[in-house]
Here is the input.
Amino acid sequence: MKANQRSFWTAAALCTQLSAAHVYAQTPVAPSSNDAAPEPQTLHIPVLERKAEQGILRPVPLSVELPAELSFAAKRVLVHYRLWGNPDWTTIELQRRGAKHEGAIPCLEVSTVTGDLRYYVRVHDERGRVIATAGSLARPFVVAIKHETQLAEEGKTASHAAKCPDPADCPRGLPGCPSEEVIAIRCETDTDCVNGMTCGFTGYCERTTRRLSWISVGLSQEFGVISTTGICSTYPQENDGIACYRNDGVQYNGNQVLTNEPPAAGTGQTRISVGFEQLVSNNARVGVRIAAGFAGSGPTPRNGTGFFPLLLSARASYFFGDDPFGKRRIRPFAALFAGGGMVDVHTEAHVREDPSRPALQGRNDLHQRLEVYKRAGDGFVGGAIGAQWALRGGFVVTGELSVMQLFPFSALIITPQIGAELGL
Amino acid sequence: MKSTLCLVLSATLTGCATESIEEPEATVATPGAFVAVDTPSSPMSLLRTLDSFKNGDDTILVFTEYNVIPDSWEEAEAMAKLPDLPIRYLETPGSFNTFTQFDHRVVWYRTLTDEERERAQ
Here is the structure.
């Protein structure tokens, strides 16, 4: 409790020697703000009244009375309890009845096992934030479950009145029977969740092995498609990032006739890539990737722009299916990306020399097949489809096929890639 | 099919020509042209035009004559595409009017190197 807040003591009472555990509480009013998350208020319980008793096969009734200010903000009052010998905590929601919230740990849960039943209370507001607590995981309230012969006289009397005649006749949720077990707890952050659960992207507490951060490595081979009509004439070679080479290794500088030529496919760079992506919803990731070309780049013509071997991109991926990162499975995905870099497309082109014009360069045959390099870039946008196969330990193998358009020096690049990822 | 492909790729690829243009051909007088000549009195020969200039009503041609004997036009073309051919006469003049009286055909064309161009000076 913050020092500048008014100090209230509770009028809390956990009735010992009774068959029901009651928590009556008064707490300071939290500062009213929709944006700031106030510290949860502590519903103080007198130390000597932290224990109660109950007989076997009997429900443990619970009642929480909140001060009016807190009651107004409270949306849900949850009780987390753990039975003797059971390693897991279970959650039930108390039902509002007037100024109180009431419910019970079911007799079916209490069963015939004797020992300490532990519980604590958390009060959530409309947005799932915890605004008050009574007890905690570390310091829960305790109800000793005993055989009736061992109960104190006062508790025995109360126990007889509350005993379930037959536990099977009183399933959860039926009128007169204990509260329903809470399946999902709303939350905003992990601190709103208990029992090792975390706050999921859907706004509910969940127990999951989902990994949020992913580091990737990949190996890719680019293939390009470029137009070859007039590709080796002077203008494209001076302005469009084109370089044409004859079979004697000399750069072509002749008079090309603009014959119709089909678009040509060629190879780009072989690259290795590393990347980082962060899961931002159950199905979506965003991140960055850097790919370094280590083979396939062409020569740089005199006065040409040198080849920059890195592709840098930002990337958003959508994985199909229900909670694809929650389970080990095949994960098909689609991605969009954009970035900067260069791609050298290497192909061949047919060039016909124009005999009617004065020769610009010797030794050019009437028809030639020239090696063509197109240095495309410097920006690109694209999309990809692929699939992941999740292995053990957060390892994933990935295959994808991407298509990207480079600009202003244009080329259409198709890239198959294989890779691996590690989830953190 | 090709024009359809051009349409599809026109947004992304440059230089899609839509119509063929007439491809200029080399003539006997074009420097760099390989000319095969078939005369009745001698075997077929392969020449290469180095230069040509007007001389009155005629045109004087300067050739390099290769030391090969093709059997057909096709073989003459195949020989012309070879990078190196044995030379019989480095340069030999001829009259265009006389030359065109014989059966001849331009079988190939290759631009002249500086060395070949100087040969005709």
Notes: DSSP finds four helices and five strands in chain B.
